[in-house]
Amino acid sequence: MLIGGDWVSCEQNALESVNPADGSINYRVSAAGSEHVDAAVAAARSAVAGKAWRQMLPHVRAQVLSRISDGLKANADELARLQMIENGKVWSECKAQVASAAATYRYYAAVCETLGAEVTPSRGDYLSMSTYEPYGVVAAITPWNSPLTMEAQKVAPALAAGNAIVLKPSEVTPGAALAVGRIALEAGLPPGVLNVLPGTGADTGSALISHPDVRMVSFTGGTATGRSIAAVAAQRLIPVALELGGKSPHIIFDDANLAAAVDGVVDGIFEGSGQSCVAGSRLFVQRSVLEPVLDALVARANGLRVDLPDAAGAQMGPVAGFRHRARIESLVDAARREGGQILAGGARPEGERYAAGAFYRPTVIAGLSNAATAVREEIFGPVLCVLPFDDEDDLIAQANDTAFGLAAGVWTANYQRAWRVARALEAGVVWINTYKQLSIATPFGGFKESGIGREKGVSGVRLYQQSKGIYWSMNPANMPA
Ligand code: NDP
């Protein structure tokens, strides 16, 4: 664990990091108990009050963030490998995620150096201003699917905003967070400003969010966990930012470029073995082109190279763990029971190479209604459910008939329809004739049960700040009566 700039271990309470590609043990990592949570929050609290961090001018803080970005790039292979052996993502994706995390720190260095406050219109002989201050100690809790990028998305803006952070990574992926903690110290971040506590959600996570000195919680993970964290935050009256699950509709109209659309759908659901919050897991296809689209999708799904994550040319690795694969399998079984036709996949790949890993084949299911379990629940695996639609009204009604509202994609050659449909979809991000394009400069977050608050963008820093109004009299004689 990283607490107050020191590396602390706890032999009695350790987690095993398991490689999902072959079931081997990567290493054992100390898990933080309540005494470590207390120590980390105390270290963060004293760092945020200390001069080294509080008085560091924004342009100097920006230099620290820039050096963290450089450190991530310089250690790209180590970071990518840590993520790969912990969550099984293929090497090329892990490398791309290190580059994305580094770009996030660089972006927030620029925001930190340039973001100002406001002089507001006064109603008298005084100067009125809105300034922005950090909350103090922020708890960041993250999932296992993309730890490098998810953690950068929280830590970089929260630091830019002047907070100190206690980060609890997923118990499945503690390695990358610990390495980033080391890189941040090497980059000159004062001790205690970033603390990293591996551990389980039930123990470490819940102790952390309940700690009286934690003044804000930033969470990415499942909707059920988000709901329970929000309940604690409500009791404590502290702000909470929630990036939660999704069941995103991906839509193909009959006038779309079908080859491009199929490419987008395949990337949108099978990249990262479907373990992406924005995975386009419900595909709606206009009935007149259903058959050619299904044929193309089945061919593509069967042709994807599922392999060990570090094998050259691997397009899909295992899913992140054996328990997680069992859950995916149970949802595909539910689809079978509810009348779904498994057109591709629906099973583990066969062969010696896959025997010890948590592999699952890219799966395409047709014939389910929008009410089926596999269509309603987030599977978080390489499973695509395909449904037909007849017209735009039918499409919008089906696409929005979900508890989630994270993302959506629409493929059409008709620009007026693209605009209408994008406006009508209940989702925090809509892609038109593309999918999964993401920019750190564009705010991101969910509608409905997919979350509260927006990360990323310039305004992403404000998520971690509270505004303060300051009124400064220019004429003491004019005091209000
Ligand atoms: P979980 O909700 O199970 O866990 C997320 C994190 O919360 C983990 O660190 C977990 O710890 C911790 N946690 C669990 N229970 C508590 C608790 N009571 N108090 C405090 N912390 C707790 O999600 P997964 O890790 O399984 O990740 C997958 C989910 O994340 C999917 O639903 C996915 O859609 C969502 N996600 C959303 C994104 C978005 O931006 N909207 C992006 C990426 C993923 P532990 O280590 O024990 O699991």
Automatic annotation (TrEMBL):
Domain Aldehyde dehydrogenase, first and last residues per copy: 7-468
Residue positions of the active site: E243
Alphabetically ordered keywords of this record: Oxidoreductase
Magnesium in keyword set: no
Pfam families named among the record's database cross-references: Aldedh
InterPro entries, A to Z: Ald_DH/histidinol_DH (IPR016161), Ald_DH_C (IPR016163), Ald_DH_CS_GLU (IPR029510), Ald_DH_N (IPR016162), Aldehyde_DH_dom (IPR015590)
The UniProt record lists the keyword Transferase: no
Family affiliation: Belongs to the aldehyde dehydrogenase family.
Protein name: Aldehyde dehydrogenase
